[in-house]
Amino acid sequence: MSAFEHDSPLVTGADETNDRRPGTPRRGSGFLDEPPALHTTPSATVGPYLAIGLTWPDGPDAVAPGTAGEIWLRGTVVDGNGDVVPDAVVETWQADPDGRFAHPDDPRGSSSTPGFRGFARSATPGGEYAVRTLKPGPVPDGDGGLQAPHVDVSVFARGLLDRVVTRIYFADDDHAGDPVLRGLTPDQRATLVAAPTEDGYRLDIHLQGDAETVFFAL
Amino acid sequence: MTGTTSRLVLPSYLREDAGQRTPVAFDGYRSTGLRAPLRTPVDLPHRLTEITGPVLGEDRLAPGDGDLTLRAGGEAQGQRIIVFGRVLDSGGRPVPGALLEIWQANAAGRYRHVVDNWPAPLDPHFDGLGRVVTDALGRYEFTTIKPGAYPWGNHHNAWRPAHIHFSLFGTAFTQRLVTQMYFPGDPLFGQDPIFNAIPPTARDRAIAGFDLSRTQPDWALAYRWDIVLRGTGQTPFETDDDGDVA
Ligand SMILES: [Fe+3]
């Protein structure tokens, strides 16, 4: 956890105000109460032929094959009838085992884990996604605490006019202090927690139904 | 760690009003019925996982990925077009180095995909897949052919307006966007629930503009489409070189 301590210019004391006025050096000044200069482009469904554009030979590899500690995250995507969804794409984004992201905006420095991309995309032939990765470490929550290890997930499919976003947590971690899980009921939490398997973890994604997965508004 | 007394200062990405965003479900689009989640999504504040995202650039490109008209040693059939524009964020800032992926039907409206079996010809010289990365000013450009309209089973006599599927990552998980670009004045807009799922105030932003000035004489028509991803709140907005960012 020492990696999270105050060696980064963006880790600041608790009593320092989060100054968001224009002209302050911080990226993302965050004036969300002002209208945007431009409205965003509206999303659309990926449609049934998404595999043409959204699959890569190395898509499922958030980490290079053969990396020590590699695991597979798997699960089935299920619709409101309980039928599998064989034409979705599941994308994952996560920190490395040190809790760092392979991204220059990580204030503690980009991940130094060799071969770690942190991003994967998997089609769902037969309804199942499969992602090769490393188990992430805890990630700072921005308020001085830690988020439990987690993976951010986007699901795209015919019949979804926008992506739907969820998270994968891991059954063998301590979730007590996690700011996201803390706000959910036990039933809701259960839809986000992957169970250990022989080669990694498994979590099904229910788009609808009694066990509908908790999806997030970003 | 000194956890209880330190914190990160993180940007927060703009969330558009519902009136400017495509809802995940739409009544007229039948496939949403069993697939679009029914429960209200839970708000997720933007923390480290959300303000970072995959770094994907030139390493995802292969030679020729920006020109879809030349495949398998020959030229694609159809109306050659240039599709170009800029990728900006909602603060008006260009998004440089951003990967764009597109896929589309051929000139006859047929996709090169096992599930697409309507009786229109495949084109041996068109696979319908393109990739480019934006330059330092957020600009992108593809050369392709104008896709045909195609029928689908959503309702009686249903036809998709001509469109190109676009996928963008931006620089953060919050910015991920998959969408469709339409062509101006398409007579099929009125009966298409995927187009009409977009709120009326946002539909123009899904339609490219014909641009005679970028049309290449004796070669290709040109369509301009600027794409706007969510930005990190508002910073003083400066008009760019040509001022026509929207
Ligand atoms: Fe399509």
From TrEMBL, chain A:
Cited Pfam families: Dioxygenase_C (PF00775)
Region (Disordered): 1-43, 97-123
Intradiol ring-cleavage dioxygenases domain location: 70-198
Classification via Gene3D superfamilies: Aromatic compound dioxygenase
Tree of life domain: Bacteria
Key word Transcription regulation present: no
One Gene Ontology molecular-function label: ferric iron binding
UniProt biased composition (Basic and acidic residues): 97-108
Similarity field: Belongs to the intradiol ring-cleavage dioxygenase family.
Protein name as annotated: Protocatechuate 3,4-dioxygenase alpha subunit
Organism: Klenkia soli
Species classification: Bacteria, Bacillati, Actinomycetota, Actinomycetes, Geodermatophilales
Automatic annotation (TrEMBL), chain B:
Short name of any one Pfam family annotated for the protein: Dioxygenase_C
Cross-referenced InterPro entries: Intradiol_dOase_C (IPR000627), Intradiol_dOase_core (IPR015889), Intradiol_RC_Dioxygenase (IPR050770), Protocat_dOase_b (IPR012785)
A GO MF label: protocatechuate 3,4-dioxygenase activity
Matches recorded under PROSITE patterns: INTRADIOL_DIOXYGENAS
Intradiol ring-cleavage dioxygenases domain mapped to chain residues: 83-111
Protein family membership: Belongs to the intradiol ring-cleavage dioxygenase family.
Keywords: Dioxygenase, Oxidoreductase
NCBIfam families: protocat_beta
SUPFAM superfamilies, per the entry: Aromatic compound dioxygenase
Gene Ontology annotations of biological process type: 3,4-dihydroxybenzoate catabolic process
The UniProt record lists the keyword Isomerase: no
Protein name in the entry: Protocatechuate 3,4-dioxygenase, beta subunit
